[in-house]
């Protein structure tokens, strides 16, 4: 009988360990999901900011080219 009792304790310990590992894995997957969603949100915001900055930079570049042409015409 004692052999069955020890075996049952080992089986119970393994079940508990498995349940604990599955709970940890579930928590880890949930955490990874939140991190990846945050990354996607940040990426979208940065993409929009990059677009707006590029648009402003193009305006400045066009303005500078126009000023250079005006200066060249004034000197000729």
From TrEMBL:
This is Piezo-type mechanosensitive ion channel component 2-like. Keywords: Membrane, Transmembrane, Transmembrane helix. GO terms for cellular component: membrane. InterPro entries: Piezo (IPR027272). It comes from the Eukaryota. One of its GO terms (molecular function) is mechanosensitive monoatomic ion channel activity. It comes from Petromyzon marinus (Sea lamprey). The chain crosses the membrane at residues 12-32.
